[in-house]
Design brief:
This protein is of the alpha+beta class. The chain contains eight helices and six strands. Helix content is 58%, strand content 19%. It starts with a helix and ends with a helix.
Length: 207
Amino acid sequence: MKVFFIYFLQIFLSVSISIYAEPPKEEVKKSDSSEPQKQAEEQKEAMSLEDNALSSVKKMIGFIRYKKNNKAIEFVDTHQFAKNLLKNHFDSLSSSDKKEFENALKEYIINKSFPIALKYFDKVDINYEKPVIKGEEAVIGSSVLYQGSEKVAFSWVLTENNGKFLISDFITEGKRVSEVNRTKQIEPMYKKKGIKEVISILKKISK
């Protein structure tokens, strides 16, 4: 089980104010009335972002379980995935090569990664921790208990895209799987054979 998860996951103001200061009464009243409201708004926004991120993961898993892979892929940021896998090389690609690589990656996830995930996600409950939001990125710690004995922990990484959080990477054993894939597989192949060959191989193994 643990081997599978590693395999599958490898495939995606502060303002200082003295407490002794005596501000004018008007300012005190304004601060007293606005601060709770501001805190409430910030908490509401944070909760909304957390719900947004967690919802994307749960919906993707739901569609995978119902074998609706074309729906599940809508919750994956394939563009960010592609950038993560090629890192600095991505920006040097032509627009057509970027699009072709992203489409090949999308095809692989739909045809290979999702069906493999179905075999396991369909049989276990996934436990989710509270999402941690940092800027445009959210990280959701998760774990599964397979056959009541083996616990596997990992994290979903999501990136905000047009107001919606989409899965863009995974963390397992403390490492981002895109980084592992990039350094061990994608980058060596890219440097040796170029992007066209990388795309070609990705398409072949997606069938």
